[in-house]
Design brief:
Helices cover 76% and strands 0% of the residues. By secondary structure, it is mostly helical. Helix 1 packs parallel to helix 3, helix 3 runs antiparallel to helix 4 and helix 7 runs antiparallel to helix 8. The longest helix is centred in the N-terminal third of the chain and has 45 residues.
Length: 179
């Protein structure tokens, strides 16, 4: 049949290849739309936290989770927000959700203030005093990378109180209250 109908075979091949190509293009386009929507939700979450509406921020994180079910970034951002407002039970829950998504692995972005802050909060939340010096190091690195993360100062204050570093605790609290 192919020898007698070469044009039909060629047309069939072109249709098949174009169908596969179009299907692939639609998948790529859908993935890009999801990525952009997720990034927009992340930005909205950060702004909503800055405005103090942590309940709405949590809703935005859940929406982001629906788009990217294996990404812990939203929960880390929310944990950072809870830290800023001293909401420790919610902070621990957000960190637990991030851990469930694999956050307790090694740092993936060593120059990310969010990741250093979350790592410090994670270590602090374990309530193991032997981990507190490393937690402090991560919190300080987060501030070094992004000094606008004022919630880190309150966590640093709590950490230093637990370590008995009264002078360092007073300094962190004074910086926190100045914002």
């Amino acid at each position: 049949w192919a020898r007698r109908h070469p044009i039909g075979l060629a047309v069939s091949g072109v249709v098949l290849v174009s169908s596969l190509g179009f299907g692939w293009y639609r998948q790529v386009q859908a993935a890009e739309k999801r990525r952009l929507a997720f990034a927009a939700l992340q930005s909205q979450t950060e702004l909503t936290i800055e405005l103090g509406n942590l309940e709405r921020a949590r809703e935005l994180v859940l929406q982001g989770q629906a788009l990217e079910p294996h990404d812990a970034t939203g929960w880390l951002t929310l944990a950072s927000g809870y830290s800023s407002y001293g909401r420790m039970p919610e902070l621990e829950e957000a960190l637990e959700r991030a851990r469930a998504l694999g956050f307790d692995q090694e740092l993936t972005q060593p120059d990310s203030a969010l990741e250093h802050q979350a790592r410090g909060l994670y270590l602090q939340s374990k309530r193991d005093f032997s981990l507190y010096p490393e937690a402090e190091r991560h919190l300080l690195r987060a501030l070094e990378l992004d000094d606008s993360r004022h919630g880190v100062l309150f966590s640093l204050y709590q950490l230093r109180v637990a370590l008995g570093n009264r002078e360092g605790a007073r300094e962190a609290l004074a910086r926190f209250q100045g914002h």
